[in-house]
Amino acid sequence: MLRNDYEGQNCSIARALEIVGERWTLLIIRDAFLGLRRFDQFQESLGIARNILTDRLSRLVEEGILDRVRYSEHPGRYEYRLTAKGRDLAVTLAGLRQWGDKYLSERPPRITRRRSDKRPVIAAFVPEGADVVREDELESVPGPRLKAG
Fold first, then answer.
1. What is the pLDDT of residue 78?
2. Contact 33, 90 (CB under 8 A)
3. What angle do the packed helices 12-20 and 23-33 form, to 10 degrees?
4. Angle at the Cα of 38 from the Cα atoms of 51 and 75, rounded to 5 degrees
5. pTM
């Protein structure tokens, strides 16, 4: 993690990295966007040590990015759901994915597209107040690398 004193800096990027700048944290958030909710699902997907996953999930709950919601009374079990603050990271993750697709992957492993017409969408700058594709209009599907066949 970065130092959090910033030595006179006024930088929102540095502050954001204090919360989401660790590798496992962004991958947990990615998996939450892909529909994973439970501890064991995150652990299986990521191959992360239980203690590290526990720490990262606790921090994401503490920061208001995930909600911890009980889904079983006996035994007491919880799942993790993205909050509005967490869902607002969608464009950030899309931008990172888009950069990785362009510079690090021959073919993208996943594509985000609009459900209605199946057209791929990209993260881009738009004027404030302009029409944008709403989250509920999007879907993430396997890209050319992950298609069966």
1. 94
2. yes
3. 80
4. 90
5. 0.84
49 contacts: CB under 8 Å, gap ≥ 6:
none
CA atoms within 13 A on the CB side of 77: 10
Instruction: Characterize 11-36 residue by residue with b for buried, 16 or more Cβ atoms within 10 angstroms of its Cβ, and e for exposed.
Output: eeeeeeeebbebebbbbbbbbbbeeb
pLDDT in tens, 82-120: 999 999 999 999 999 999 999 998 888 888 889 999 998
Who's near 100: CB < 8 A, 6+ residues apart?
none
145, pLDDT greater than 80: no
